[in-house]
Amino acid sequence: MSDTHAQTVAYVRDTMTEQREPPLSQTGAYKWILGNMLSTPLNVILTIGSLWVIWSVLSHVLPWAVLGIWDADSLSACRAIRTEIYGADASVACWAVISERWPQLLFGFYPPEGYWRPVLAFALFIAAIAPILFASLPRKMLWLTVASPFVMFWLIWGGTVWAPICIALGFVIGWAAIRVAGPRIGALGSILLAILVPVLYWVVIAGPLASGLSAILPIGLDQVASRDMGGFMLALIIGIAGIVLSLPLGIVLALGRQSDLFLINKVSVIFIEVIRGVPLIVWLFTASLLLNYFLPPGTNFDLMLRVIIMVTLFSSAYIAEVVRGGLAALPKGQYEAGAALGLDYWKSMRLVVLPQALKISIPGIVNTFIGLFKDTTLVVFIGLLDPIGLSNAIRASTEWNGIYWELFVFIGLCFFIFCFSMGRYSLFLEKKLRREHR
After folding, report:
1. CA–CA dist 178, 198 (Å, integer)
2. 298: left (phi over 0), alpha (psi -120 to 50) or beta
3. CA-based torsion, 88, 90, 96, 101: positive or negative
């Protein structure tokens, strides 16, 4: 009876079996290829067709790019070297135009002895924007962020050091006016005061003050005219200035469009609709040709400054609509929460509403910035030598007449690096702020 009972007891394992590798079809590259490229007959056909297209392109592009000539002083010399090495019928790139003219593509006609100035200004910009992009950096670095626009302006354009100092002093005066008179005149009055006081100071006092200080203590760098700037330095100056200035202006326009005050609402709506309804190239021609007709006779309004203003206004109209979409996506309860906490309008927007709206709007904002940076090439139509304009000038020279793809490949690659970096940071910021899924 005991034997029968022993046979009916279920077997219980008291030791674990050795771990085995998963089947080949369920792991590694084989599983990925099988699941993503060969899962159905249609996918097999599409995969084979895609591989054939990729091979057809790379089989022509890679030899052309990799076997290119880097050391030559003209297109004819480049072709002679190609014929000697690969034969007359070979198709290879003449990268020598890049190695020969890269300073011009990057800096335009900026004085070669002063190349260190825009390079240092760009390095300063990277250091200044880092504490804004990455919250882990020390907050004291924000002082560098505040001072960097004035230092960068002085480094690039040169002149007396007192000019940017006197311009920066206007912002200090505006801040002091708000601190002193703000509690008495309210939020709207403080905003108007913060605009009017610095503008009056810049128009009436800043110029003579800078000239007087320069006469007493002349400190500065050799001045460089805007017409000598070009290439990617010009694109970066216009793009960075437009991006930095258009974001706060776009936020103000978005809030103005949602305002209950009739005048502010209608002015914001008219501005946004008029700016968005006209192509950027038309506004650039307006800045180049028509704006001088509205200025006093003898006024010398720098063309680059006019372009920066127009690009900023154009981008701010698009940013305003992107931010307005973020504001509209927030539940009404978020606005009521700010009121329930006893916050006034500006504090409620700054602490409750805008942080959430801007988080929602990140993809649209970065997309607008990328489009703005690429649209800086349109300044070639008003006489500024951006990378495209310089490529035309290089191709028109005797040495490089007939060069084509190499310049455009280099320009496209440089633009891709900047735009891809902005896109990657956008994805990083979205993942960092995606708190609702945690």
Report:
1. 11
2. left
3. positive
Residue ranges of the alpha helices (H) in 277-361? 280-285, 303-329, 332-340, 345-348, 354-360
Q: What is the DSSP letter of 109?
A: T
Which token pair is 12? 């219980």
Residue 1 in this model has a pLDDT that exceeds 80: no
Q: Answer for the pair 160, 195: CB distance below 8 angstroms, yes or no.
A: no
Please tell me the pTM assigned to this model: 0.83
Q: What angle do CA 319, 328, 189 make, to 5 degrees?
A: 70
Contacts 24+ apart (CB under 8 A), 423-428: 423/366, 423/370, 425/133, 425/366, 426/362, 426/363, 426/366
CA dist., res. 229 & res. 223, Å (int): 12
Q: At residue 272, does pLDDT exceed 90?
A: yes
DSSP 221: E
State the Cα–Cα distance between residues 97 and 80, nearest whole angstrom.
15
Q: Is the pLDDT of residue 312 over 90?
A: yes
For the range 236-241, what are the long-range contacts, defined as Cβ-Cβ under 8 Å and sequence gap of 24 or more? 236/122, 237/156, 237/304, 237/308, 238/304, 238/307, 238/308, 238/311, 238/376, 238/379, 239/372, 239/373, 239/376, 240/125, 241/308, 241/311, 241/312
CA–CA dist 63, 153 (Å, integer): 44
Instruction: State pLDDT tens for residues 118-160.
Output: 999 999 999 999 888 887 888 888 888 889 999 999 999 998 8
